[in-house]
Amino acid sequence: MERPQTRRTPLSGGVEKRMSKSRSYRLSLRSCVSSRLGLTPGWTTRRLNSKRKAPKSQNITNQVSPDHLALLVKHEWQLSYVSPLYHFRHTQLKSYARQLSAFIAAEKQQGLAVEVGIQDSFKVSFSGVQGLAVADDDPETVLIQVHTKPVFAQQDDPLKLVWSGWLTCCNGSPEYLHSLPKDFTCLPLFGSSGAQNLTSLVKSWFQKNFDCSFGPLEINHTSLEWLVALWTNCNTETNIQNLKMLWTLPVEPPLQVTYVVEGNDAWDLWSSLQQRSEGDGGEEAGWIGIEEVTAFMQGLKNHFYRHFRLELSAGNLSQVSTSLGSAKCNGKIKVSNSRYMITTLTLLTECALLKMPV
Amino acid sequence: AIESALRPSDQSVSCRSGNRSMRVAENERRKKAEEPFVLALKYFSDVQTGTPVTGNDEFEKNLVLVERVAYSNGLSPEAISIMLEFAMSLRMGSSPCVRVLKCLLPSSVVPQEAVVRGVVWLNVGKMPITTQVLFLKWVLTVFDMIDAKDQLRAVYGFIFSFITEENLCPFVCHLLYLLTRKESVRAFRVRKLMDLQSKLGRQPFLLHLLSLYKVFSPELVALSVPSRVKSGFKNHNSPWKVALAAVQRRNGAQIASAISLALPVGDRTSSRKRKHGHLQIPVLTSVTNKQPHTEQNSRKKLIPLVQIQSFDQLLKTMHQIELPAQMGSLLGSGLALQYLDCVQEESALLRLNFWLGCALQEEFLFGSDDDAAHIPEETLQFLDKLLSAQHFLQEGFSSSDAFLYKFLNVWDGSLMRPQILGLLSNIPVIPALRKLLFEPLTQLFFTSSLFFKCGLMECLNSMLVKWLTWHSVYALEDDLDISLGSHTSVNMTLSGFKDSVMELVHFVGRLASVGLQLEGCHTLLLSFVLDFYGTVCDTFLKFGLPLVVMPPAGVFYPAFFAADPISLDRLAHIMHRYRVNLTSAKNQEKATEAFHISRQTFQEFNHYLVFMVNCLWNSRMFKPGMDVRLSEELLQKSNVPQYWTRFDLIHHPALMSYAFDFHQKCWPGRKEMDLNSIKVPEPWSWYLQYLFNQGFDGLKDFFQSNINQHSSSGSAEAC
Q1: N or C: which end of chain B has fewer CB within 10 A?
Q2: Model pLDDT for residues B39-63, shown as the tens digit of each residue
Q3: Which stretches does the entry tag as region Disordered (chain B) (predicted)?
Q4: Which residue does chain B place closest to A180, by CA atoms?
């Protein structure tokens, strides 16, 4: 390595040496921070996977408790991404539950002119969901539920679930997870269902306690197309009934097109593409490539064009649904069939990780 | 006359004054707008009952005007009175009523009389119930801005009578709740409320009012109010909240804090998710979930950063300080920044970067820009804070770099320009810059105004200076302490850094060449370009980086042929510094052989130098082998007398006025101007003295180092 041979030996060499030492250490640390997270030249390479495993029906009912599963399947979830949690401990869930209920109660009391009976009317529970972590590096999923007692309920009335949410990481990129220091727990995907103000309270509690940030997670065009293909691919095992797509076309006035395809017809088109591509190489079996997804979507669009003379490519796919679930571009998702939950969550985890700022 | 040119330091002044003039224009525009606004108010106070609304252009025009004023500056108390009166009297029917109510944003206070009159109107007209609700919601929203409450309390009973209207009841209860005093609590009112409760069920709003009554007169209210009541009244300020906050922010009113406190909680939290929620620097708080298992902690007592009050205290407790719960909060205070400068924990820096990265990308990349032209005050404040933090730490944050790499691709070059350019200048000079930075910047540079071009040049110059300075510290240490190798990062070797700097300089050279051409060698742009080369020519001596890069022809010749003497003088200075740097590099190269300056650089330098000396000193402009080549015939045809002398020290357009002046002073009696007479040896040396006394130090240095003074003036030689 070339080294500059400066002749200027500083008089106060010792002091200067100390000073510069700390400086260069920190500077190099800075570049470490970025390089180890693959940031500097790397951010361009972080893209959505162009290939993923075809979903296999997975009976996760054995691994995940039926209560949890029922809850996950029942609601439509509003998605957000979360930066890694600092000093989050799966062993402390009980204490977190206590703290969060106290926090919610305190926030709710704020600004009340007259105190009308302080009593913590919110009961929060944290629980780990076993069985959703697929890869070895995935931290365990965390489920948060907020219950409340109806105002004029009798003593023994059951608590009412008013809010629920979860944090998960499903098949998260091992390189990214490994690049984080041990202090961080990466659960990048956050889903919530319930009152808006509770969502923001929970978020702000997490921000304060685990120094993380939340941001909305939209499901973009490409991800929706992936879902179309992945779900259609399941039709042999589980009938998807109808493949329903909602397109938004940028014309004046805005035009919305609902395009429904009979599940079996969609599968016919899909399998014809599969046969074609499988002829090329057998070792790729069980994997779906983005080319196939694009071709499938193109097929659907062509079909529509033939009948209605309307080019859907000009618009945006904003919503898809089948009997397996539904997804909207604004980040709302519902997984109706637990058997294919992992596949969907894997895709969404990937989207969430793409949103990480560093 | 001496042309004046902008010195580099004038730049900040010029852009500031640019802003100021914009503001002045804005004020004038506003003043002009005020006149029609008065007329518009007059229209609404005078308009006859039954005037049609549909197709009424005058009405439409006036209302739009009022709305515009309301949403930008808020309405004065008188305007509120007039508009409220107009709306509630239903003079033009109920359809404009809603629209007017929605824009009733007070700039200072709401006159009580107007509200009382409004309440009275509720009873008179055939106002749709939804509009009545809207009015009550408005009253609740602006309640704390009503200048007095005595008259409202005087009509307590009147307001109470609306309680029987089922749709109005929740809002009336809320309003009563705010107005109730001990004397308002009467037995018949309690009875009425109990009646209602039996009819409507145990509604929270009734319960609240009753519980307040019970507080004042327990003997009248026999009802047992349950200890657990859903908290607060619902918040009804939604139609006005955002607009009102904006108006108050613009007017710098302090009422805002009072109002947000006074309103019952309801959806207080949802106000946090408004668009600029991301840009709040978190409050400095200590960690709540302590880590019990770390032994180190128990051994030495940790002090939360919040408790540190002074710099002395910080110094004393430096090693016991506990990081706050949210690292982003360190950006909020000066003392915390001092501490941040010493934080060396990777996790802590990572936390800070996660937070900052999220805030920036949510705000500027993913956020919906419904109103891109208007930049809210918070945004600018946030960025300024970030900038001053980076300035304090003398480096950027990697998340803001990452953000910029993305943002530059969507930036229009004008949105928050000073802030973005400020952040940009903190980007480290790394090998990957070409793709990340140069490509988007090239596009921006060629499609933007002269002002942007200058700004970018300044930014790239300060970027270069920062990293050269960083290098000069770093390189020094490398010399002294080689064992430090374990800390130095992998991707920042000296040669890598040198290559990156070279790439940056070449990049700016390309930009500058084409930019100068596009802008017709504009003096201002040229000045910024010369600033940049003022840094480049000294990289070796000033910063200890063994690298010398010459300016491209597209920069050198425009500077040389510039019509203003300052550019020429600065070019001469730069050439002089190049010479000093190259000479000393050559000497060291011979002595140590540790680095190598390419032969081509020396050739380029000599080439330029010979040209300059030939033109300015020897009056031999068109010599073979030079870059500027014109055929003899063409030159003859141009009919320029003695064309080879046109760019010497006397005839150069930048210096000619000095030659005239000198001529006049030297030979005051002469009628006919003959500049060539300066060429005679004696006046020539006087002339040089005269020029150097005008402050052309660059030219002075240049000639002193490059011209052998002892040789005759006509035949000086280049190095």
Answers
A1: N
A2: 888 888 888 888 888 878 888 888 8
A3: 1-28
A4: B347
- Residue segments in chain A with a per-residue pLDDT below the cut of 70: 1-47, 110-120, 150-155, 277-285
User: Using the beta-carbon criterion (under 8 Å), do A215 and B361 form an inter-chain contact?
Assistant: yes
Q: What is the mean pLDDT of chain A?
A: 81
Tell me how far apart the alpha carbons of residues B105 and B240 are, in angstroms, rounded to a whole number. Answer: 7
B182 — pLDDT class (breaks 50, 70, 90) = confident
ipTM for the predicted complex: 0.86
Å between A120 CA and nearest CA of chain B: 9
CA distance B493 to B216: 77
Q: How many CB atoms lie within 10 A of CB B667?
A: 15
The Cα of B351 is separated from the nearest Cα of chain A by a number of Å equal to 7
**Chain-chain contact of A43 with B269 (C-beta, under 8 angstroms):** no
Kindly give the residue spans of alpha helices, DSSP state H, lying in A10-86.
13-36, 66-74
CA distance B290 to A134: 30
Q: What is the pLDDT of residue A167?
A: 96
Q: Identify which of B212, B291, B490 has the shortest CB distance to residue A114.
A: B212
Of A35, A116, A215, Cβ closest to residue B211: A116
User: Strand locations in chain A, DSSP E?
Assistant: 51-53, 77-82, 85-86, 122-129, 141-148, 160-168, 184-185, 189-194, 214-216, 242-249, 255-262, 287-289, 316-322, 325-328, 332-335
User: Is beta strand A316-322 parallel, antiparallel or unpaired with respect to A242-249?
Assistant: antiparallel
Q: Which residues of A touch B405 (CB under 8 A)?
A: 43
Longest dimension (CA), chain B: 117
Residue B258: the pLDDT is: 32
* Residues of A in Cβ contact (< 8 Å) with B201: none
Q: Are B306 and B284 in contact (CB under 8 A)?
A: yes
Residue of B nearest to A31 (CA): B489
- How far from the centroid of its chain's Cα atoms is residue B167's Cα? 48
DSSP at B146? B
Cβ separation of B282 and A207 shorter than 8 Å? yes
* SS3 sequence of B6-38: CCCCHHHHHHHHHHHHHHHHHHHHHHHHHHHHH
Q: Compute the nearest-CA separation of B174 from chain A (Å).
A: 12
DSSP codes joined into one string, A124-192: EEEEEETT---STTPPPEEEEEEEE--TT--TTPPPEEEEEEEEE-SS--HHHHHHS-TTEE---EEEE
Instruction: Give the helix/strand (H/E) hosting B321.
Output: strand B321-322
Of B272, B347, B359, Cβ closest to residue A200: B272
A109-141 burial by CB neighbour count: b if 16+ within 10 A, else e?
Answer: eebbeeebeeebbbebbbbebebbbbeebbbbb
* Percentages (nearest 5) of helix, strand, coil residues in chain B: 65, 0, 30
Residues in B touching A212 (Cβ below 8 Å) = 354
> According to the model, what pLDDT value does residue A111 have?
54
CB A262 within 8 A of CB A240: no
Residues of B in contact with A116 (CB under 8 A): 208, 211, 225, 227-229, 231
Element at B303 (helix H, strand E): strand B303-304
Are B479 and A5 in contact (CB < 8 Å)?
yes
